[in-house]
Every structure is written in C-alpha cells, then in structure tokens.
Amino acid sequence: MKITNGTDIIEIKRIKESIEKYGDKFLKKIFTEKEIEYCESKKDQKYQSYSARFAAKEATYKALSNSINFEYSWTDFEVINNENGKPNIKLNFKIENLENLEISLSHCKEYAVATVVAVYKEN
Fold first, then answer.
1. Which domain covers residue 62, as residue numbers?
2. Cα(first)–Cα(last) distance of the chain, in Å?
3. Digits of tens for pLDDT over the chain (123 positions)?
4. Domain holding 29: CATH number?
C-alpha cells in the first residue's frame, strides 16, 4: 500500500473577489454544476463553501500529482457530499491502482482548508 497526501489553504476573500469580478466565467471554469448548486444553497456562507471546494481541488492535485501525467481541468475534480453530508472527491478520470481518496474540509471566517489522502494498491 502506498499513501500520499495533499493540503491546501486559501483566503476566502480571494475566491469571493474572483467570483465578484469574473462571475459565471470563473465559476464554470473551476466548479461543476453540482458544486455551484450546493454552494449557492449555502446563502451567507457560499463563499466559504466555494473556497473549501477550491482548496479541495488543489489538495487533490497535490495528493495525486505523481500519478497525473496528462492535461486536466478544474472540473475533472468534483467535491460532492454523501447522504450524511460528508464531502467526497469524484474524479472524472481513472488513475491506475488508486484505491481510495479521503477528504477533510474546514473553514472559518477568513480561510478554508482541505486535506486529501490518496491510498494506492501495490502492484
């Protein structure tokens, strides 16, 4: 078994400013329709949710960076919540021997952070 990890932290203000400046162009470049729908449903905390998902995509890339040797887009990484509200990462591509991805998200008033752990099967 091989385990890799990635962590990212971002200022919520940066994501809020990008959304306000670029609107749908920014949102559709970075987030899937499901992610946008989820974040928009959070009303006053939507920028925290967008920021946490942005950090999750960065953390996922960091955890998988030794396995990704092709062009990808931001929307190839999708953060979706299960029926209990736990966030999960859905990849829109396959990585050989990747067994599991675990994700943890958190945010406060100013920052959002994400940690991703990737577990690989041994050959």
1. 2-120
2. 9
3. 999 999 999 999 999 999 999 999 999 999 999 999 999 999 999 999 999 999 999 999 999 988 887 788 999 999 999 999 999 999 999 998 999 999 999 999 999 999 999 999 986
4. 3.90.470.20
Alpha-carbon gap, residue 41 to 85, rounded angstroms: 14
Query: Token pair for residue 86?
Result: 């736990």
Please tell me the distance from the alpha carbon of residue 46 to that of residue 38, in angstroms, as a whole number: 8
80 with 36: CB under 8 angstroms? no
SS3 state of residue 120: strand
Pull the structure tokens for residue 99.
Answer: 């067994």
